[in-house]
Hints:
The chain is an alpha/beta fold. The chain has 10 helices and 10 strands.
Amino acid sequence: MSFVTRFAPSPTGPLHLGHAYSALIAYDMARANGGRFLLRFEDTDLERSKPEYVQQTLDDLTWLGITWDAAPLFQSQNLDVYNQSLAELISQGLTYPCRCSRKDIAAALSAPQEGAPHHLYPQTCKHRAMSDRAEGDAIRLHMDRACDTLGNMDLVFEELGEINKGTYHIDKNALMRDVGDIIIGRKDIQTAAYFMASAIDDIRQDITHVVRGVDLFEFTQVQVLLLHLLGHKPPKYYHHDLIRDDAGKRLAKRDDARAISKYRNDGATPNDIRQMVGLL
Ligand code: GLU
């Protein structure tokens, strides 16, 4: 069986315990299956991504005993690839341009008679055609049209994690109700949104098993839909539970107190880290 997995950090902060957990699970799975483990830096956020975080991530992973089987992929060097996929969805008539600012969206959502659920885009620009796209507009997925293309097809993916284990059937109504017309083309750097770039790269890197936190479960469903629209079969997914702080909150990038480099400086060993995340 071919087994290729990856760790795909966004280098916008130091690697913390939650990342180490994810990377170690993926790495252990690759090695246990005689497979390959790849690295990808999701650095399309050009403002927040920093070379020093890339270096620190490489150092921390090496210290943890993790090795990777090919040169890391940097998304910032592949923006044209994501643009091609975006162009494909545009040509399928599944998108519209959006000029709304965060402020416009907040104002529309606070209007009492708005029909859209509170957290969704209020569809202000939905009537606009792509030919009307102005410089600086974002591109949104026309979610109901995208779901319509499925007809009666049952869109599924294999979930190997403990949560929702098995064949997961994507609920189109839930996508329309809970996700809505998400931005798939960013206005700031004119390329695909990061979850779209990530799905495309899982195909480009021939990833067979995506290992990631359960907080990305909703993204996975959108990604499987996008991959289907682009003519790709999705990989299998393993959503793992999350490492939380003492108050039960998910660790965030700014949680420097949980940074691997801090534990290293305090004299912890890689096995101490494995123990802390429950992998030993
Ligand atoms: N880049 C994402 C993060 O650092 C992970 C994306 C993924 O696993 O697909 O949270």
